[in-house]
Design brief:
Elements lengths: L1 H4 L3 H9 L3 H39 L17 H10 L5 H12 L2 H15 L6 E4 L9 E5 L2 E3 L2 E3 L2 E2 H33 L1
Antiparallel strand pairs: 1-2, 2-5, 3-4
Helix pairs in contact: 3-4, 3-6, 3-7, 5-7
């Protein structure tokens, strides 16, 4: 609704200057829903390694051997990688390389810090501004301010650029990881 009612640049200026409670409330709801959707997307991107750890654990049958078994509440990508390293699973090196590529990355580190800071301290909400020199959807400028988590300071980032980049990076890696898991499982099945 917000995007449909904003048809010209001056409409955004009116938002700043308005005394109309209905306009103010509509703008507040827009900001609130925007932040909630961004936060939900970030949480989901951050959960991918957790989901992946279970996919790996069960699809590679790590749960069937006493030497690779993990307590259900302790299944994580880290614990699965350790068991995978010690396992006799064939052709695992490429998979381990892809898992490192997923998690040993500056953008993933930023994502983890941002989500964990928001979970355990306070939510880092994107700052929303309007650039009157642009038009249509480009008028919105969303930015995460810099923050510190676990004694490391993270720089400010453009929200759209970060989310698109990290989503695309993880999407491609998940396809490659899935194909690699499929290849390993096929090898395991033909070996037996």
């Amino acid at each position: 609704n917000h995007l449909k009612t904003m048809t010209k640049e001056s409409d955004y200026l009116d938002l700043v200057l308005t005394l109309d409670p209905e306009v103010y409330n509509t703008e507040h709801e827009f900001h609130l829903s925007l932040r909630a959707n961004i936060n939900a997307l970030l949480i989901n991107l951050n959960c991918i390694p957790d989901y992946l750890s279970h996919v790996l654990y069960y699809s590679l049958a790590l749960n069937l051997s006493n030497s690779t078994k993990i307590e259900p509440k302790k299944i994580s990508l880290y614990s699965v990688k350790i068991k995978l390293l010690d396992s006799s699973i064939p052709n695992k090196q490429e998979l381990l390389k892809l898992l490192d590529e997923l998690t040993l990355n500056d953008d993933f580190d930023f994502l983890r810090a941002l989500v964990n800071h928001s979970k355990h301290r306070y939510t880092i909400t994107p700052k929303v501004t309007y650039n009157m020199q642009k038009s249509n959807d480009d008028i919105y400028e969303l930015k995460f301010e810099n923050f510190t988590y676990d004694k490391k300071t993270y720089p400010a980032k453009n929200v759209n650029e970060f989310i698109n980049s990290e989503y695309n990076r993880q999407s491609m890696l998940m396809i490659n990881i899935g194909n690699n898991i499929d290849s390993i499982v096929q090898c395991m099945l033909t070996k037996n």
